[in-house]
Design goal:
Strand order of the largest sheet: 2-1-3-4-5-6
Strand content: 5-15%
Order of helices and strands: EHEHEHEHHEHHEHEHEHEHEHHHHE
CATH architecture of the largest domain: 3-Layer(aba) Sandwich
Number of domains: 2
Distance between the termini: 32 Å
Number of strands: 11
Helix content: 25-40%
Structural class: alpha/beta
CATH class of the largest domain: Alpha Beta
CATH superfamily of the largest domain: Glycogen Phosphorylase B
Number of helices: 15
Length: 361
């Protein structure tokens, strides 16, 4: 690994960015990036937003961690690719024109088959020239491999196994679990993004007969505090959730958690660990990120990775191909079928208990 001053972490936004009254807390990618940067053993790390950096400046760094890049220009992406000294940190579905938010897509393959076949032209050079890609979960990696255009790209891959959490967040959640607050309801998180499935979560709570509270328009500390007084947390997205931070935070904070097969972290070993083991894993995860970065940066092996296992593959499409033809002819049926099909798949749930730990920290 090169000297600390040569490391650049570049993204669209960071935790420190100002928020509007409507957007009161950082996104999951920003929180994960924050935990990664805080754990870097090679400080200082230069943090730059794409809007702040020129293509010429990008070429000066010895190692570039490329996080979210929706605001990057083609010139900036080309400059990073030319260095060949970059590692891509995947938070959603970078190669997809919809970034994996299939529910917002305007054509059937994405919206109803829940599959991406984007040619990924703007990203091709960046991916092929990278030292490697780091995915959050195997399910996210499997979604990339489902795209034949991505499968033709040669690159190394590593999988973290979940989102990253700072020491402060882990300590806060652990304290919430230990304080013994009265818990009497189920909670779910509202989102303006339909793919997060808050309507399905609300309906599931109603069907189960649980008293329910919606977590909405809160700061990040307020969101964690809401989990700390909830008996259950329900998260039932209707499309791919590459990892899923809130289900992890909820279990750490003392909630029983209901998820479906679309939540990436629920298929990872972390989800099945007992409390002490899970907490230890989460404490080490940001440091493991940098170990993976170092391994990729120094790799000399051929740039290929084994395909994901069948168990890691994303759930099947909402509708078989012949029904997509009907949807093209009858657009009036589209939203009805999407809602019904997604709700049915999203409601195939599993329940995980809160993580109980014996450690005092």
């Amino acid at each position: 690994m090169t000297h600390a001053s040569g490391i650049l972490f570049v993204s669209d936004r960071f935790v420190s960015d100002s928020r509007s009254a409507r957007e009161r807390q950082p996104g999951g990618a920003e929180l994960t990036d924050h935990a990664a940067v805080a754990a870097c053993p090679h400080h200082p790390v230069a943090l730059r937003r794409w809007r702040e950096i020129t293509p010429t400046e990008l070429a000066r760094y010895d190692l570039i961690i490329v996080s979210n890049a929706a605001t990057a220009t083609r010139e900036q992406l080309g400059a990073v690719a030319q260095t060949g000294r970059h590692v891509l940190f995947e938070h959603d579905l970078r190669l997809c024109r919809w970034r994996g938010d299939f529910c917002r897509a305007r054509e059937p393959l994405h919206r109803f088959a829940m599959r991406c076949r984007c040619p990924a032209t703007p990203w091709r050079e960046l991916v092929e020239s990278a030292r490697g890609l780091i995915f959050l979960t195997e399910r996210q990696r499997a979604t990339y491999h489902d795209n034949p255009h991505y499968r033709r790209l040669a690159t190394r891959e590593e999988v973290l196994g979940g989102s990253l959490f700072s020491e402060e967040v882990l300590e806060r959640c652990h304290a919430l679990a230990r304080r013994g607050a009265t818990r009497s309801h189920a909670a779910y998180a509202w989102s303006e993004n339909p793919i997060k499935g808050h309507r399905v979560a609300h309906e599931h709570c109603r069907r189960m007969g649980w008293a329910v509270r919606e977590i909405r328009s809160r700061t990040y500390p307020e969101t964690l505090a809401a989990l700390g007084v909830s008996e259950r947390f329900v998260h039932l997205p209707i499309g791919l959730e590459p990892a899923g931070r809130m289900p992890v935070e909820a279990r750490l904070s003392g909630c029983e958690v209901t998820v479906n097969a679309l939540v990436g972290v629920a298929a990872e070993p972390l989800w099945r660990m007992p409390g002490d083991e899970a907490l230890s894993w989460l404490h080490d995860a940001p440091r493991r990120f940098w170990r993976l970065v170092e391994a990729l940066a120094n790799a000399r092996a051929p740039k290929d990775s084994p395909p994901p296992t069948a168990a890691a593959a994303a759930p099947g499409p909402l509708f078989p191909p012949w029904e997509l033809v009907t949807l093209r002819r009858r657009p009036d049926l589209a939203d009805h079928w999407l809602t019904a099909g997604a709700a049915a798949r999203a409601s195939d749930v599993s329940v995980a208990p809160p993580w109980r730990t014996t450690s005092g920290s």
